[in-house]
Automatic annotation (TrEMBL):
It comes from Plastoroseomonas hellenica. This is Xanthine dehydrogenase family protein molybdopterin-binding subunit. InterPro entries: Ald_Oxase/Xan_DH_a/b, Ald_Oxase/Xan_DH_a/b_sf, Ald_Oxase/xanthine_DH-like, AldOxase/xan_DH_MoCoBD1, AldOxase/xan_DH_MoCoBD2, AldOxase/xan_DH_Mopterin-bd_sf. Residues 1-25 are annotated as: Disordered. Pfam families: Ald_Xan_dh_C, MoCoBD_1, MoCoBD_2. Keywords: Molybdenum, Oxidoreductase. The keyword Cytoplasm does not apply. Residues 30-150 form the Aldehyde oxidase/xanthine dehydrogenase a/b hammerhead domain. SUPFAM superfamilies: CO dehydrogenase molybdoprotein N-domain-like, Molybdenum cofactor-binding domain. Transmembrane segments: none annotated. PANTHER family: ALDEHYDE OXIDASE 1-RELATED, XANTHINE DEHYDROGENASE. It comes from the Bacteria.
Length: 783
C-alpha cells in the first residue's frame, strides 16, 4: 500500500496547478471536431434568411409568390406565419430599473419583422428549399416593399430632440434611464475637490468575429411533439429555457438543445436569435430537419455587436491625490432591439467595475440606454468590465499629468491595502482579498520600467515615437448562478463529468478533469466531459462572466464529496467493515490502520455487477448534484505595454507586453496563460484596429474584412505572464476567473502607451480605435 504522505507522480502530473495539455486539441487539430455546420441529418432541407437592406422603414408588403415558385422551394415563411403559429418574441430579461424606480421599457422582438424594419440585416422572411443554393436563389426573389424612414445610428443623436423615433411606446428612444449612487454626495465631493479630471471617452463598437459563424438545425418529433435544436451556444440549459418559455411557448421537456464543438462566442452566442424559431417551425411544418448556416456577411449584420458607449468620465481628488469620487455619465447604444442582456454592460457592469482596485468612497453611474437603427448590442468579452477599468485608468493617468504627480505613486496611494480586507466598495461589492500594490510593483520589475528611457531614445533615433502604458484592473465576475456537478461511472470504465457550463474554446474538459482527478483520484485519461445536451441537465448557468471554474469546479468538488460518502458505505460492505472505519485517499477506500482496501474504479465496477445489496449500500457511485452558487470573485492584475508609432504614417506597433495577474488558485497555468493571451489580443484589436462604422442612412460600411480590421499574429509581440496569486475566499477552489481579464488589462495599457508616445507633441487623449488615420491626424493637429 503506497504511503499517503509521499508525493504521487500521477497526482503531480495531472493535479491542480499542473500545465496539462488540452484534452480537446488532438481531435480539433486533426479536423475531427464536430461543429453545427459539419452535421448533415438525413432528409434535411436548407433555410436562408431574407434580411432588410433598409435601416429603418415601414413594411408595406413582402412578396413571396415568385420565390415559392422557384425550383426546390419547400416553404417561404414571414412574420405573419410565426404569429399565426402562436410563437412568442425575443425580449430583454435583465430586471434593471430607471432612476425613478420604474422598470425599463422592454421591446417584444418578433423573430421575423412584421410592421417595421429597424436595422440593416433585420430578418423579414426565410426561405426553405432542398439545397442551400436553391434557398439562396429564392431568397433573392422575395420582394420587400418598404417605405423608408430616416435613420439614426449614434445613441446620443437618437436621444436628442427631433431624432427619428424607432418605437411609438419609447419616447426619445430611451429604454432605460439608469442611475446608481448618491448624486448629492457625489456632487458635494466634486464641488469641494482640490482637482477634477474630466475625459470624454468613446467605447467603440465591435463585431464579435467568432471563428465559427452561427448555425442551427431544427427538428420536430411529431409522435412526441418535441423540438430538437442543434446549435452553437454558451450553455444549453439556459438557452432551452429561453426558447421554450418565451418563444416556442412549450414546456421545457418539449425542447432539447444539443451543442457540439463551438468555434468561439465571447458572449454573442449566449442567447436565442430569430433564426432558431424559423428553423424549428419549418421543421415542424415540413416534417424534416431544416438547417441554416450564416455566411460571414450575414454575421456582420445579424450577430449581436459589442461595446458602443459614449462616456463622460470624471474623477475628483483631494490635494494629496486621494480619490474622492468617480462619476460616469454615458449613452449606451442598444441597436434596433433590446438583446437579452443588452442594457447590463453600460449600467450594472460599469458600476461594479469602475471602482477597480482603488479606495473610491463615492461612485455615480448615469446611463441612458438608447435604441438606434443598428445591429443589436449585447455582451462581448468582459461585457462592461474592461470598460470600467479602462475609464478609471485613463482618468488616473490624466489626473497624474494634470496634477504633476507620478502616476505609479498616485495609484499606490489609492490602492486598497491588504489590511483593509474584506473591503466594502461603493458599488456594493465586498472584496475578499488582494495584494494590489505588490502586484503592480512586480509588474514594473518584470517590464523593466526603469529601462524604458533608453528604449525610447533608441526608437527616437530611428524616427519613431515610443510610449509605455500601465493598466491596473480588477473585475467583478458574473453574478452567482446554480451549476450542475454530475459524476457518472460508466460501464466501460470511464467517468463522465456532467456540467451546465459549456466550452467554446476555453478547455473545460482538461481543467475540470484535473479537479475531479485531484478530488477522487480517478485516472485522468478515463475522464470525459458531457456539457452540450439539455436532457442531461437539472441546472446550468452556462459559460460567461469568467465564472466557469468557480461554478463548475465548485460543483465538482461538492459532488466528489458525495461520491466519497457513497463510496464509504459501499466499501464498508465489500470490505466487511463499519463505514466509520473507512478512509479515503488518492482514489482508494481502505480500512483505517490496515492495508485492506479497494480502488474507487474497482468499487464502481463491483457495484455495477452486484445484486441484492442491503438497503444502506448504494447501487452506484453516480451523483447528480447542483452547486447552490458562490459569490462573485475579483480577478485582478497589472499590464504594461510599450508601443512604437511612426509619426509619418500614424502606424502603431505593440513592441513589448508584460502582465502580472492574480487569478487566485490556478488549476491549469497553460490554459490560463492562453486565455490571457486571447483577451490581450482582443483588447489590442479594439484599441488599434477594430471599428464598426455606419453611414448616415444606417448602412454598415465595415461589413467585410476588407473594411474591418482584426489583429493578426504579426501585429502582437510575445507576452510576459506571471502569477501573483491571492486565493479567493468565495469558492472552494480559491479560483478567481481569468477568461476576460486580458481585455480588462490591455485596453488601458495599450491606450495609455499610445497617449504617452504622443504626449511630447501635446496630445492628451486619443479614442479607440487608434487607427493610423486617427493618429496621423492627431499628430498633424498637435504640430
Amino acid at each position: 500500500m503506497p504511503d499517503a504522505n509521499l508525493p504521487d507522480p500521477t497526482f503531480m502530473k495531472f493535479g491542480i496547478g499542473q500545465p496539462v495539455p488540452r484534452q480537446e486539441d488532438p481531435t480539433l487539430l486533426r479536423g475531427q471536431g464536430r461543429y453545427t455546420d459539419d452535421l448533415a441529418l438525413p432528409g434535411q432541407a436548407w433555410c436562408v434568411m431574407v434580411r432588410s437592406p433598409y435601416a429603418h422603414g415601414v413594411i408595406r408588403s413582402i412578396g413571396t409568390e415568385a420565390a415559392r415558385a422557384m425550383p426546390g422551394v419547400l416553404a417561404v415563411l414571414t412574420g405573419a406565419d410565426l404569429v399565426a403559429a402562436g410563437y412568442g418574441n425575443l425580449r430583454c430579461t435583465v430586471p434593471l430599473k430607471n432612476r425613478d424606480g420604474s422598470p425599463l421599457t422592454n421591446i417584444e422582438r418578433p423573430s421575423l419583422a412584421t410592421d417595421r424594419v429597424r436595422f440593416v440585416g433585420d430578418p423579414v422572411a426565410c426561405v426553405v428549399a432542398e439545397t442551400r443554393m436553391q434557398a439562396r436563389d429564392a431568397a433573392e426573389a422575395v420582394e420587400l416593399e418598404v417605405d423608408a424612414l430616416d435613420a439614426v445610428t449614434e445613441a446620443s443623436a437618437a436621444a436628442a430632440p427631433g431624432a427619428p423615433q424607432l418605437y411609438d411606446h419609447i419616447p426619445g428612444n430611451v429604454v432605460l434611464d439608469f442611475q446608481y449612487g448618491d448624486a448629492a454626495r457625489v456632487k458635494a465631493a466634486f464641488d469641494t475637490a482640490a482637482h477634477v479630471t474630466r475625459l470624454s471617452i468613446r467605447n467603440s463598437r465591435i463585431v464579435v468575429c467568432a471563428m465559427e459563424p452561427r448555425s442551427a438545425i431544427g427538428e420536430y418529433e411529431a409522435d412526441t411533439g418535441r423540438f430538437v435544436l442543434r446549435v452553437g451556444s454558451q450553455g444549453v440549459f439556459g438557452l432551452r429555457n429561453q426558447l421554450a418559455n418565451d418563444i416556442l411557448k412549450v414546456p421545457t421537456d418539449k425542447l432539447r438543445i444539443l451543442t457540439g464543438n463551438v468555434g468561439g462566442s465571447f458572449g454573442m452566442k449566449a442567447s436565442a436569435y430569430p433564426e432558431y424559431a424559423c428553423v424549428l417551425h419549418a421543421a415542424k411544418l415540413l416534417g424534416r430537419p431544416v438547417k441554416w448556416t450564416d455566411d460571414r456577411s450575414g454575421s456582420f449584420v445579424s450577430d449581436q455587436h459589442g461595446r458602443d458607449h459614449e462616456v463622460n468620465a470624471e474623477l475628483a481628488l483631494d490635494a494629496e491625490g486621494r480619490f474622492l469620487a468617480v462619476r460616469l455619465t454615458s449613452y449606451g447604444n442598444m441597436g434596433g432591439y433590446l438583446a437579452t442582456v443588452g442594457p447590463m454592460m453600460g449600467t450594472a457592469n460599469f458600476t461594479k467595475n469602475i471602482q477597480s482596485n482603488y479606495q473610491t468612497p463615492l461612485i455615480e453611474v448615469s446611463t441612458k440606454c438608447v435604441v438606434t437603427n443598428t445591429t443589436p448590442v449585447s455582451a462581448y468579452r468582459g461585457a462592461g468590465r474592461p470598460e470600467g477599468n479602462y475609464f478609471m485608468e485613463r482618468l488616473i493617468e490624466t489626473a497624474a499629468r494634470e496634477m504633476g504627480k507620478d502616476p505609479i505613486a498616485l495609484r499606490r496611494l489609492n490602492h486598497i491595502r491588504p489590511d483593509q480586507f474584506p473591503y466594502a466598495t461603493a458599488s456594493g461589492s465586498t472584496y475578499d482579498g488582494g495584494d494590489f500594490s505588490a502586484l503592480m510593483d512586480r509588474a514594473i520589475d518584470v517590464a523593466d520600467w526603469h529601462g524604458f528611457e533608453a528604449r525610447r531614445a533608441e526608437s527616437k533615433a530611428r524616427g519613431l515615437l515610443r510610449g509605455r502604458g500601465l493598466g491596473n484592473f480588477l473585475e467583478c465576475t458574473a453574478p452567482p448562478m446554480k451549476e450542475q456537478g454530475g459524476i457518472r461511472f460508466e460501464a466501460d470504465g470511464g467517468v463522465t463529468i456532467i456540467t451546465g457550463t459549456l466550452d467554446y474554446g476555453q478547455g473545460h474538459w482538461t481543467a475540470f478533469a484535473q479537479v475531479l482527478h485531484a478530488e477522487l483520484g480517478v485516472p485522468f485519461e478515463k475522464i470525459r466531459l458531457l456539457q452540450g445536451d439539455s436532457d442531461e441537465l437539472i441546472a446550468g448557468g452556462g459559460t460567461g462572466g469568467s465564472k466557469s471554474l468557480m461554478a463548475s469546479g465548485a460543483a465538482i468538488v461538492e459532488a466528489s464529496a458525495l461520491v466519497i460518502d457513497k463510496g464509504r458505505a459501499a466499501a464498508a460492505h465489500f470490505l466487511e467493515a463499519s463505514p466509520v472505519d473507512i478512509e479515503f485517499a488518492r482514489g482508494r477506500f481502505s480500512i483505517a490502520g490496515t492495508d485492506r482496501g479497494i480502488d474507487i474504479m474497482d468499487l464502481a465496477a463491483r457495484l455495477r455487477g452486484a445484486n441484492n445489496l442491503p438497503d444502506d449500500v448504494p447501487a452506484t457511485l453516480d451523483v447528480r448534484h447542483v452547486f447552490d452558487q458562490a459569490p462573485m470573485a475579483f480577478p485582478n492584475g497589472c499590464h504594461i505595454c510599450e508601443v512604437e508609432i511612426d509619426p509619418d504614417t500614424g502606424i502603431i506597433n505593440v513592441v513589448r507586453y508584460s502582465t502580472v495577474n492574480d487569478f487566485g488558485v490556478i488549476v491549469n497555468p497553460l490554459l490560463v496563460e492562453g486565455q490571457a493571451h486571447g483577451g490581450i489580443v482582443q483588447g489590442i484589436g479594439q484599441a488599434i484596429y477594430e471599428r464598426v462604422a455606419y453611414s448616415e442612412d444606417g448602412q454598415l460600411m465595415t461589413g467585410t474584412y476588407m473594411d474591418y480590421g482584426l489583429p493578426r499574429a504579426e501585429d502582437v509581440p510575445s507576452f510576459g505572464f506571471e502569477s501573483h496569486a491571492v486565493p479567493a475566499k468565495t469558492n472552494p477552489l480559491g479560483a478567481k476567473g481569468c477568461g476576460e481579464a486580458g481585455c480588462a488589462g490591455s485596453l488601458p495599457a495599450v491606450m495609455n502607451a499610445i497617449v504617452d508616445a504622443l504626449s511630447p507633441l501635446g496630445v492628451t487623449h486619443v479614442d479607440m480605435p487608434a487607427t493610423p488615420e486617427r493618429i496621423w491626424s492627431a499628430i498633424q493637429t498637435a504640430r
